[in-house]
Q: What sequence folds into this?
């Protein structure tokens, strides 16, 4: 983590995740950073283990075990690179595989080590020292084995690209693996890590002599990559679940006669979340599910429409909530100070994650003995605990096989293991008759999702004599944490307004408060979580305030960020590269936004063209990022590009609206993600840094939408009050 | 009824309305063809039918008799190879779920239009969704594949 990091969001999420590990699974807290005793005997394929993260084969391959899931963010390359650097391997000999579910060995250090999980843009940050040490320890063991074999001083040995040498003597890692694996691993204290100045792979652009490209590219372009939905053992049955159209609805009665008559149907039965249909294949299961006649009991269900819910939010915006931040006189300054006071409300809808690979997992259950679970989950140890509890097994009897995930964006990181819970109940009912794959259709994904919370912000500022004197930010939102077993009763969920309460601008009077609402609609972290809305409210409103004060948006930010050098650094770099200040033709506009999320600093400049009828296009986004030491610059750029695209997708077209409690949207024709034709040209610039690495999966997203809104403001003078904004202003 | 998939004849005896996608994935175990939406809205399930990009999720297998079907596993055309090389050079993929469909669509585009304009690339590729938003690189990689083809 960066030394100047004082954000509240991560500790809050961490403590929650510790609770998950402790409360559900009873796992011990503590993250092993030492290298475990290596097993001397070679495992399958002649692979010798060098601690929990590194295996070396007699075929000279070096395999890195990933404690984080690969879902596109690039950990199969990044984590593998860290080990390859310290062990001094050749990139061509590196392999990766997903680690089993096991804590604390594979626990996430950023979550306190109690849960194995991927989220919060922590994979590289929390693995950085751990994998450098793992690589350095394996290297030291290889050198010791070579020195003993050659009867030379270990200090005379050098290692380069997978070959240990001393004078004229040479041996490959594969030659040395068996001997080296028998040695006692060195203590962490005795390890000599590389001087970053000597890095050969970390931070380098791809080339024949460095990292030659993403480790997961080959299998993903020829159809051989295996994802959760691709797992298909012999005798597999496929399950679909009919869930309540309204959140909080329950099954009142079921007529399954027509469903059972569909060819290929194996069974139809109720589970806690609805009615499960199990069949020989997807089409039979879908046909049968469509034939179910279910009466739902909606007595406890959400029955409001989105408009009514927003009206309820607006009433709450009139009253103060929990004050998470106060500077100077806080909100009182608005009435006591002088100058112009103005207020703007912003509305944000529910959002579905809609990863390209719909949700699925497969349970192979042998009652009383074991269960093998294939999935693409962000929290394998949570699933393990859920499966064990439901199936009457010990966690150690539940083997988790983590497959590739076709995206997730938070959806596959549920604190309650929702997918595993449904699958376990189905497997329990089938009682070992066959392995069963639970699938969610796209309609299930869009209509029964766990959404980014619907949110409103009321922003008020007072400007006086060219200065922003006061700033208040009031949020009404549903908490992700509260209402689950993992919330902290009586304590407000400040992570809901991460990025808002820690507004970095030096303004004399600040008040940030939050009021929580409840609804049966299920909510979940969605790529960049609270920053999805706080960054928009903060950065778009900043431009409105700057305009009231007669200030240039860039200069106003520069003057108020003197105490935040890394924010200032990305702000200035993005502005410079975008040509800030250069005149634009009529109808075009340029906007800037800067935001810190998950300890990474990003600024973006957007350029838009607005036609006389108000339709617009986003022509270009220039991005500057400071994420500390960069492991793989091309993947940092890719994550910025993807984060910008995901942010623009929500800004322009995505929303879940409810009509009488039922989602209006059903699939990609009405839940409308960004298309290629809407994607701007993107340039990414990386600030050189020697700080510890921080994450890049999420931080590219938050500035994108406000940068576009600010560009539209510059071009038209109009404020964007509501997301999605559509393609017309 | 006989279907020809990647040059091999297979016998289809399933339900008349069962989409080709599920026959390819579940029966033939060719899992490179992906399910994304089931309603021809995203393009993850794209296969080539007589060289034309086709949404296998909304095409009944029983309607494919006598047609030549190519999945990502069977892609070996000049354009297809050039696209895969360009995808590797630019490291287009992120999660990868949509990429079989993107690659087959790009290969068909370049077979028909070896020197596409920027607008033709946009028009040819915008039907294929990518939630990771690899669009920026897809545009570049289609142009690069065109160069590779010569």
A:
């Amino acid at each position: 983590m960066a030394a100047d990091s004082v954000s509240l969001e991560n500790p809050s999420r961490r403590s929650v995740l510790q609770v998950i590990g402790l409360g559900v699974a009873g796992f011990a807290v503590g993250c092993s950073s030492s290298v475990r005793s290596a097993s001397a005997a070679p495992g399958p394929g002649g692979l010798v283990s060098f601690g929990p993260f590194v295996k070396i084969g007699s075929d000279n391959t070096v395999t890195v075990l990933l404690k984080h899931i690969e879902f596109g963010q690039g950990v199969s390359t990044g984590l593998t690179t860290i080990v390859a650097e310290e062990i001094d391997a050749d990139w061509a000999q590196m392999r990766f595989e997903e680690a089993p579910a096991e804590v604390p060995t594979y626990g996430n250090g950023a979550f306190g080590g109690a849960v194995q999980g991927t989220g919060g843009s922590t994979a590289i940050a929390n693995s950085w020292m751990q994998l450098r040490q793992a690589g350095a320890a394996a290297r030291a063991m290889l050198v010791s084995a070579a020195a003993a074999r050659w009867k030379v001083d270990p200090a005379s040995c050098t290692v380069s690209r997978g070959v240990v040498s001393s004078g004229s003597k040479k041996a490959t890692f594969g030659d040395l693996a068996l001997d080296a694996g028998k040695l006692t691993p060195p203590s962490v204290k005795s390890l000599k890590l590389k001087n970053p100045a000597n890095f050969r792979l970390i931070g380098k652009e791809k080339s024949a002599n460095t990292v030659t490209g993403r480790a997961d590219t080959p299998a993903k372009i020829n159809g051989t990559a295996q994802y959760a939905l691709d797992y298909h053992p012999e005798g597999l049955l496929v399950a679909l679940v009919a869930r309540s159209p309204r959140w909080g609805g329950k099954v009142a009665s079921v007529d399954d006669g027509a469903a059972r008559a569909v060819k290929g149907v194996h069974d139809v039965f109720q589970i806690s979340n609805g009615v499960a249909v199990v069949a020989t294949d997807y089409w039979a299961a879908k046909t049968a599910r469509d034939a179910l006649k279910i009466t739902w009991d909606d007595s406890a269900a959400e029955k409001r429409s989105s408009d009514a819910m927003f009206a309820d939010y607006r009433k709450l915006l009139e009253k103060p909530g929990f004050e998470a931040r106060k500077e100077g006189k806080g909100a009182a300054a608005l009435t006591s100070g002088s100058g112009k006071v103005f207020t703007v409300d912003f509305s944000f809808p529910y959002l579905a994650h809609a990863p390209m690979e719909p949700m699925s997992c497969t349970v192979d259950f042998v009652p009383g003995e074991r269960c093998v679970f294939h999935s693409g989950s962000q929290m394998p140890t949570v699933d393990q605990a859920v499966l064990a509890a439901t199936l009457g097994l010990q966690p150690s009897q539940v083997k988790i096989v983590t497959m590739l995930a076709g995206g997730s964006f938070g959806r596959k990181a549920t604190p309650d293991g929702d997918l595993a819970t449904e699958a376990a109940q189905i497997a329990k009912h089938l009682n070992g008759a066959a392995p069963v794959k639970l699938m969610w259709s796209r309609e299930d994904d869009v209509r029964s999702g766990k959404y980014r919370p619907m949110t409103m912000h009321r922003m008020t500022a007072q400007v006086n004599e060219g200065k922003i004197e006061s700033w208040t930010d009031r949020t009404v939102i549903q908490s992700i944490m509260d209402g689950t077993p993992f919330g902290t009763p009586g304590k407000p969920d400040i992570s809901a307004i991460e990025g808002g309460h820690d507004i970095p601008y030096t303004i004399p009077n600040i008040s940030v408060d939050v009021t929580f609402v409840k609804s049966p609609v299920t909510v979940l972290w969605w790529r960049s979580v609270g920053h999805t809305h706080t960054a928009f409210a903060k950065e778009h409103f900043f431009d409105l305030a700057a305009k009231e004060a007669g200030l240039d948006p860039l200069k106003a930010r520069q003057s108020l960020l003197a105490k935040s050098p890394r924010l200032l650094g990305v702000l200035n770099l993005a502005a410079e590269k975008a040509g800030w200040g250069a005149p634009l033709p009529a109808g075009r506009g340029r906007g800037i936004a800067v935001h810190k999320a998950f300890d990474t600093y990003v600024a973006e400049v957007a350029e838009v063209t607005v036609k006389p009828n108000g339709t617009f296009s986003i022509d270009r986004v220039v991005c500057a990022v400071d994420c500390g030491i960069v492991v793989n610059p091309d993947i940092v750029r890719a994550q910025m590009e993807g984060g910008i695209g995901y942010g623009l997708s929500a800004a322009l077209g995505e929303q879940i609206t409810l009509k009488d409690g039922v989602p209006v949207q059903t699939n990609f024709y009405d839940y409308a993600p960004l298309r290629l034709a809407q994607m701007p040209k993107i340039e990414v610039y990386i600030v050189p840094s020697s700080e510890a690495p921080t994450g890049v999966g999420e931080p590219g997203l938050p500035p994108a939408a406000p940068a576009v809104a600010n560009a539209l403001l510059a071009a038209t003078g109009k404020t964007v009050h509501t997301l999605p904004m559509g393609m017309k202003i | 009824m006989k279907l020809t998939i990647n040059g091999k004849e297979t016998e289809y005896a399933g339900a008349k309305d069962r989409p080709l996608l599920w026959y390819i994935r579940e029966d033939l175990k060719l899992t490179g063809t992906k399910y994304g939406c089931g309603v021809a809205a995203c393009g993850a399930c794209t296969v080539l039918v007589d060289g034309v990009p086709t949404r296998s999720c909304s095409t009944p297998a029983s309607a494919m008799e006598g047609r030549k079907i190519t999945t990502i596993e069977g892609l070996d055309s000049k354009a297809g190879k050039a696209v895969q090389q360009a995808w590797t050079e630019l490291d287009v993929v992120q999660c990868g779920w949509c990429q079989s469909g993107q690659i087959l669509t790009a290969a068909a585009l370049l077979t028909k239009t070896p020197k596409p304009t920027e607008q033709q690339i946009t028009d040819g590729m915008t039907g294929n969704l990518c939630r990771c938003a690899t669009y920026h690189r897809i545009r570049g990689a289609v142009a690069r594949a065109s160069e590779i083809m010569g």
